[in-house]
Amino acid sequence: MTLSTNANPPSLFHYNRYKSATISASLAEGKTVGDGVKAMQAISDKLLDDSFQTSLSGPSRDYAESSSNISFAFALALLLIFLILAAQFESFRDPFIIMITVPLAMAGAILSLFIFGQTLNIFSQIGMITLIGLVTKNGILIVEFANQKRAQGLTKFQAVLEASAQRLRPILMTSLATSLGALPIALSLGEAASSRVSLGIVIVGGLLFSLILTLFVIPVMYTIIAGKHKSKEEIDNQFN
C-alpha cells in the first residue's frame, strides 16, 4: 500500500488548513473490487472521525456507481415485467402468482454462489437480472394453461393440476436448454472466462432451483390467490 499526501503551499494572505491523502492498494489473490471497497470502508469507519471525508476514485468508484445502477435496473425490470403481465392477463393476481418464481430463483442463485465460493459482484448481479425474464416463463406456462382449463369448466384445483402435468415437458425442455447453454460460462471455459464464472453459476443455479420449486409452489399459490374466471358457457350466455 502506498500513501501520498498533497497540501497546497501557504500563501501570504491565506493558510489552507485542509490536506488530502491518496491511498492505493492492490487486491489479494481471490478478492474482488467489492471486497476491497468493503475492507477500506471498514478501516475508515474504525479509524476516522467525522472531521474526515472520504471518496472513491478509479475502478473503485466505477464499481460503486455500477452497483447502484444495477439495483435500479433490477427494480425496473421487476416493475416492467409485472406491468406487461398485468396487461396481458388483464389481472393483477395472475402476474403476482407468476412473479413468485423470482424470489425462488434469487434464493437458488445466492445459494449457488455460496456453494461454489463466488461473490456477489457485477457479473452475478447481471445474471440475476437475466434470471427475472428466464424464470417467469415457467409461471406463465402454468398460469395461462390453467386459465384456459378453467374457461372449459374445470375447477381451480383441477385446472392447475392438469396444467402442471401437461406443461411439465415444455418447462423442463426450456429450463434445461437454457441451463446447458450457460454451463460453459459457469465452468470457466475459454480465455479470460474466470471473471464471468459467477454469471454462469447464477443462471444455472437459479434456473435449476426455481425449476424444482416452481412445479410445486406455483400450483399451490394459484389455488390460493387466483381469482374467479368465467367459463366459455358463461361468456357465451353473457353476449347472447
Number of domains: 1
Q: Tell me the Rg in angstroms.
A: 26 Å
The tally of strands reads 2
- Specify the helix fraction band: 55-70%
The rounded distance between the terminal residues' Cα atoms is 82 Å
Order of strands, main sheet, comes to 1-2
Q: Which stretches of 5+ consecutive residues score pLDDT under 50?
A: 1-16
**Average pLDDT for all residues:** 78
Task: Characterise the protein shown here.
The chain is mostly helical and 240 residues long. The protein has one domain (69-239): Up-down Bundle (Multidrug efflux transporter AcrB transmembrane fold). It contains nine helices and two strands. Strands 1-2 form a two-stranded antiparallel ribbon. Helix 3 packs antiparallel against helix 8 (197-225).
Summarize the structure.
This protein has 240 residues and is mainly alpha-helical.
Main attributes?
240 residues; mainly alpha; Multidrug efflux transporter AcrB transmembrane fold; two-stranded antiparallel ribbon; 9 helices; 2 strands; 69% helix; disordered N terminus
